[in-house]
Amino acid sequence: MVKFETIRSVDVKLGGNNFLEVAHKKAITTEGENEFISLSRGFITMENEKRFKRSIAIPYDKDVVENVKKALESLLE
Prior knowledge:
The chain has one helix and four strands, in the order E-E-E-E-H.
């Protein structure tokens, strides 16, 4: 069994009731723990609850995060 713990998260509004959650998370199992960055697209329901459509995870590694950041910035040039 895997337990997920959110260490910190930031929501980015995408317009309407849509958002992108950028989160630092931890997966905890009996074998150990693994930290990662989660990018999850979601929406807010009429009851004001978060619902998620899809998600990707990247390693919690400074070099990987920096390379993803540079790649995103290069798309705006």
